[in-house]
Amino acid sequence: MARAGCCDKGTPEGGDALLMDVSLPAAVIHEAPLAHNLAWMQRFADAHGARLAPHGKTSMAPALFRRQVAAGAWGITLATAAQCRAAFVHGTRRLLMANQLVGEANMAIIGDLLEAGADVYCVVDSGANVRHLGRYFAARGLRLKVLIELGIEGGRCGCRDHDQVLALGEAIDVEPALVLAGLEGYEGVVHGDDPESAVRDYAWQLVEAARALDQDGLIEAETPLITASGSAWYDLIAEAFRDARLDGRIVAVLRPGCYVVHDHGLYREAQRGVLARRPELQQGLEPALEVFAQIQSLPEPGLAIATLGKRDIAADQLPLPLRRYREGGSPDQVLSVEGWRVTKLMDQHAFIHLPDEIDDDIRIGDIVAFGASHPCLTFDKWRQLLLVDERLRVRESLVTLF
Amino acid sequence: MARAGCCDKGTPEGGDALLMDVSLPAAVIHEAPLAHNLAWMQRFADAHGARLAPHGKTSMAPALFRRQVAAGAWGITLATAAQCRAAFVHGTRRLLMANQLVGEANMAIIGDLLEAGADVYCVVDSGANVRHLGRYFAARGLRLKVLIELGIEGGRCGCRDHDQVLALGEAIDVEPALVLAGLEGYEGVVHGDDPESAVRDYAWQLVEAARALDQDGLIEAETPLITASGSAWYDLIAEAFRDARLDGRIVAVLRPGCYVVHDHGLYREAQRGVLARRPELQQGLEPALEVFAQIQSLPEPGLAIATLGKRDIAADQLPLPLRRYREGGSPDQVLSVEGWRVTKLMDQHAFIHLPDEIDDDIRIGDIVAFGASHPCLTFDKWRQLLLVDERLRVRESLVTLF
Description:
The structure is a homodimer.
Chain A (H helix, E strand, L loop, with lengths): L25 E5 H17 L3 E2 L9 H9 L5 E3 L2 H9 L4 E7 L3 H12 L3 E6 L2 H13 L4 E6 L12 H12 L4 E7 L10 H21 L9 E4 L5 H10 L7 E4 L11 H12 L11 E12 L2 E4 L13 E6 L15 E5 L4 E4 L13 E5 L4 H4 L4 E5 L5 E6 L3
Parallel strand pairs in A: 1-16, 2-9, 3-4, 4-5, 5-6, 6-7, 7-8, 8-9
Antiparallel strand pairs in A: 1-10, 10-11, 10-15, 11-14, 12-15, 13-14, 16-17
Helix pairs in contact in A: 3-4, 6-7, 7-8
């Protein structure tokens, strides 16, 4: 009988063959593209003189955090205090919480982490939050490093202009428990007719604001930081930070998250943009995450139902059938899914439209590998994902901490 | 320092006051409406002479399964073999897997459950699956109870007509390891200009098919079953099964899942339909599930950002702000959210449009209760949900087993 900790969907039942021993559906990460992506993005950051703090919210898998740090990452970015705790408890020492820290229960978590030796940064964008943090951490006799967020009009969080940034810098300056460590931004909410130009402009506004804070003597941390970048426009951010020649004084930190397993939708599209802008970046990121499920019903011509639902895979876009295998068969015998199209996703079922000529070839139990977009919303469906080699043998079970 | 099993978002940090001690965001179930819903649906089933096997996939929370069984449920419905295992390991003995059982790794799970004493039913709709199940369970010296699924043209799984049902009944009859136990359907995929009539028609088709199987002597189980019903049209199914006067011979089993916490969207709408059709069912289901999150940023007039995202709450429809409290304040001091509207949900952030006049009243850290639709996709974001009393004190942490 299995472990009782969870429903353990997608775990090997006494063997390591994905096409035979694993209870499907299961989420799978392919070893080779994972290793490629880890090295690729670290090389990219290094080449731009930037540190890499991959966004950990994507996977919340400590085994991946360890691989990212081993590949050279400066730290791990996280979105919440609870995520920071999970990462620290599992071995990540430097935590960039790229978000406002609100609520005393959450401040308590971060306070505990500081006492336990974590190196934590978080983000502020209001005087009210600065005062609350200042009061809380002073009462505990702790000092918290903060970054001021510069956002954009109509965007998400963040100060809306440089005056607000400087005023907030001064508010931090009078809170003994807070250490201003630099500037933070997120270009993923920049929109407009020409998003590429808008992102470039925003990157340079970040540079100017960071310089202004620094020149006003408001940055107390020994190593001032400037940090931005999601998974779509990281090349533009990295270029601006490199071209600003901050090296001597302000350290640039990039925070892409989805690169680790890439995807088959939004980010594959975004990566095409990166490679079009930067043709020298050969052999870009490769999709590494798939969900394997089985055909459970062939109820009428042209329709197959698979054991795959919103409980198993991201549903921002409908999943893509990629390949097919026979249950218990060899991973070398790849069957076609040409013309297959997912038309609907329910909680536990996928509806697949089949081209006419395939009906004879498909069987109940056939195993289909699906790709998805975006990866964050596939990871969070799973308590473990299976790392597999090129023979689809399970090498490791990667636990997630959502 | 907290337990290291997961990121433990939404857990009390050394106290039981939701508005002070709990790391937000947190998913909350209110005690009183939960108890009301549990009793309401059991009473509904009893009044129709039907058994209740609530769909457990909704919550995957064994503490709720136990309450459902204690309230009188006949068993728990589940969607996958892994879910059946999780439910059985945590105390549910009768498991209705309302889905096809495919894949030998999944058959192995069900085989283990049978050996451990579980009473399992699963669903078949193809000769290929019947033969595979027959071979597998014969080899293990076990007998598996199966229900034939009758679907609809253009629907999901299931036979498409009575001839297919009877042919499949005969295919089961020649598999010594399989015990035909009755008929299964799911009216949630019935559509059309007049869905109410279409669901009634479908319910009567199920009745006729079950009777035909029984009259042909194909149902081997001592207690033949007929089962259908999701959370939207259960009243029509229950009526048809009652009016068919099956009592003497075939037992009707209803399988709504979402009723347990109801919702603030799709199912609230559906419940209005039920109450319009059946005005004697006074005081219908009540929404019991909410997600509490905090205002983290007030970056420009008319815009608030809350610590609530697709990682925390169902996103089929945008969440509804319901009430607001001051952090650390009293649960009696409810602040207005009139005119508040969530306009966008990212992974970890909600964008809230505020009416003009409220800007003075709102503070960073304010706690907002959000409602959502549908509940299955909120439950699966959480490893535990907090059961709270009317004073918002945490009474119990309900673990989920996704």
